Amino acid sequence: MNAQEKLLEDIYSENIEICDFNFTDNLKGLYVDGIIAVDTSIDYDERTCILAEELGHHYTTYGNILDPNDPENRRQEKTARFWTHQKLLPLEKLAKAAVDCQGMESWELAEYLGVSDIFLREALEEYKQRFGLFKEFPGGYIYFDPLSVVFV
Question: What total number of domains does the chain contain?
Answer without folding.
Answer: 2
